[in-house]
Batch of 3 targets.
Target 1
Amino acid sequence: MSKKKPQQSSNTIARNKKARHEYFLEDKFEAGVSLQGWEIKSIRAGKVNISDSYVIIKNGEAYLLGAEIQPLNQASSHVYCEPDRSRKLLLKRRELDKLIGASEREGYSIVATTIYWKGPWAKLEIFLAQGKKSHDKRDTIKERDWQRQKARIMKHSVR
């Protein structure tokens, strides 16, 4: 008998599923996040929401806005916990320059899609994204439905 490997839990903490529906995701970047102690504890407990989050560039630095990290009930009373504060993103200069140049173009924005663990550090997956128009969203939905229907037809035709 072979030994069973212990199941590894997923490193993903939270996802922004709405981003794939709202944007054409183009370039992917991995950024570290500058967090306080209570935020790390809350993230470990899974009390994070990045569904409406986005990245802005201010004074040559990237900041995450709209991410909500709820403080734990056991949080220290001498520290003021602000769930909606802006958090600095840690990127290499070359990546930051690329984001600055691209975000200044018309119709492009920087969207956070996933927050996950990489070793002991919380990392944020961000994309350079272009907004979809409503007809693009409808086309995406039609294509997805057609793929589902095609798979269903192929499954039944094999029998």
Target 2
Amino acid sequence: MELNFTVETKDVLLDMIKRHNKMYRMGTPEISDAEYDAEIELLKTLDPDNEWFKHTEPAFVPETRKRALPIPMKSLNKVKDISELKKWYMSLGLKGNAGVICMPKLDGLSLLYNELTGEAYSRGGIENEGQDCTSHYRASIQCYNPASSFHYTFGEFVINRSDWEQHFHGKRSKFTGDIFKSPRNTAAGLLNRDEPCDYLEHASFFRYGVDESSLHDYNNFHSLVISINKSIFTILLL
């Protein structure tokens, strides 16, 4: 991995990571996702046992939007190759014939949605606390409610390819004057703003395992699922 920054000490690098993490969670990211991932990878190389990797940094949530989550929302870890996925599988102590269901993690912000009341939450604060995103969800005209028998669903608040290219890519925010950095950062920033805005009409919500039809404009979904399933099948045989 080629890094476009240098650091003098691990402490300086860790301070950079903490700052960039905080700014991202506040909805005002200073760097791209790729740059942040590069910082994390460098810290793993310099200090793989650093305490940073042993806890989940709570997201900043203003008191006016802080809510107790009706059911837990857990954080996710990234895997970049099959060996990491196999290591995770083995760490669970599963038997060789155990089945695992895998789906792609979309590049957006995780939401918990109450299908009965229309309330929406993102993760934030301490354990089992979240951020009320109900009014932001309702401001997105692309977020719809499929016929479902579920009470709660988990999903991803995203900006799809065509909307990103048409409404955000290379353009500046009318609120900050900064150029939109990426679909994920933009989606997070829109949800973390205290008040909903008209940019939200270009965002959408994909429910994991419920409505594949809402995954429009993600052309590689089918091939990605096939690839993941083949990889899992190989792991189960090993």
Target 3
Amino acid sequence: MTTAYASANNTADVETLHKIGNAAEVANETRTFTKERVAELQEGVDEGNMSLRLLSSIGALMLIVVSVLTSFADLLMINGGSFLFGCYGFILGFVILILEYGKRVPAFGNMESKLYKNMGCLKTVWGRGCLLFFAGTVEFAQNDFINYAVGIYLCSVGVLFILVGRSAARKTATARRNLYTSEQLEKMFVGVDQDGGGFITKSQFGDLTVELDMDLTRREIEIAFRQIDVQNESRIDFSAFMRWWNDEATEKLDSFIPPSDMA
């Protein structure tokens, strides 16, 4: 009977180990899936999809063509104000094309990098949406049916970009928060806190974002750190970091990059 009891215990132990092993495997698979999903969503925030790019490109080409035609007509009629708006429209249309095809057209590559350097918000879908919307409003300034039509189209596409970009940003924020537990985050925070004082600097915060696979630029790190460091002490503690992390952190980071931070 003792032997049978021991055998039963051994069988139960084996089953328990199998369950633990299966649970660990499921956890690893879930973590891998979540990371892949975060990467997909982040790509959605940064690039958008082909249909949006196509809509944007059509709008840019329409803007360039209409701007050239109206500017030429205004130049002949010596209409300086309208001519300037036509020039603005041409420039905006060209900028939109650079943003959409900078990675595909070598000639646009350097120009795209310069745009990103000076206007980091244009890296995101919603940022490009704002640009499209602004370009559309410029067209409304010209008293012509064709310009109105192009303006309505650009504003509509711009709103679509903004809605898609913001939605993707919110999903990314949620996915990132679900990827790590508070205990894991605290362990990472302590890991970059070199002196063990319970606070980290902006540089150490940058190291923490690398650990979290957030892929933030230098400007984005500075903006995020400013959001956390509300007391302007040039350092943050874990509780302040967690408030930022749990308060739609990534969404807020994607929402606006102040011009003052572009220097």
